[in-house]
């Protein structure tokens, strides 16, 4: 009797998980540089703003074009936040899989989210500038 399930790929040369046991896989990576760390912290701060602005209008998260597989990956807000925090703490990105059957209409790119946030900021700034200009007349 086994406490764990028996691996059906034991001894199979085409085992899809074989690369997980590669020597050196768990070797420590170089820690994030100060610049990389700052970039991730800025991404986390931006993510909070994007979620606050876009979630109320039905956007569930961001879509990112994966550099490894050249496929779009859909991340909900919490998953992306968790991935960024994991990167900060471990210096290594998480293993990823494409989302199962996501609705692309509910996800936007980083660039779209950034542009949307900039547009909201500019609109709010114009309102305060107009009020300041009219008071000085």
Polypeptide structure, described:
The protein contains three helices and three strands; from the N terminus they run αββαβα. Helices cover 45% and strands 9% of the residues. Strands 2-1-3 form a three-stranded mixed β-sheet. The model has no long low-confidence stretch (mean pLDDT 82). The protein is mainly alpha-helical and 137 residues long. Residues 22-34 have a biased composition (Basic and acidic residues). Residues 1-34 are annotated as: Disordered.
Short description:
The protein is built from three helices and three strands, in the order H-E-E-H-E-H. With 137 residues, it is mainly α. Residues 22-34 have a biased composition (Basic and acidic residues).
How many DSSP helices?
3
Task: Tell how many strands the DSSP assignment holds.
Answer: 3
Largest sheet: 3 strands, mixed
- Spell the H/E element sequence: HEEHEH
- Could you tell me the mean pLDDT? 82
Strand order of the largest sheet: 2-1-3
N-to-C terminal Cα separation, in Å?
Answer: 87 Å
State the share of residues found in helices, binned by percent. Answer: 40-55%
**Rg calc:** 22 Å
Q: Which percent band covers the strand fraction? A: 5-15%
Poorly predicted runs are none
Broad shape: elongated
Q: Structural class of the secondary structure composition?
A: mainly alpha
């Amino acid at each position: 009797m086994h406490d764990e399930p028996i691996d059906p790929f034991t001894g199979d040369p085409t085992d899809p998980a074989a690369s997980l046991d590669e020597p050196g896989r768990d070797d420590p990576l170089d820690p994030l540089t100060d610049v990389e760390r700052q970039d991730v912290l800025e991404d986390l701060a931006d993510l909070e703003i994007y979620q606050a602005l876009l979630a109320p209008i039905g956007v569930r998260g961001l879509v990112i074009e994966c550099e490894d597989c050249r496929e779009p990956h859909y991340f909900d807000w919490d998953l992306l936040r968790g991935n960024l925090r994991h990167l900060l703490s471990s210096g290594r990105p998480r293993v990823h899989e494409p989302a199962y059957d996501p609705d692309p209409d509910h996800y936007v790119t980083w660039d779209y989210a950034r542009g949307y946030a900039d547009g909201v900021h500019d609109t709010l700034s114009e309102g305060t500038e107009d009020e300041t200009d009219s008071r000085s007349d």
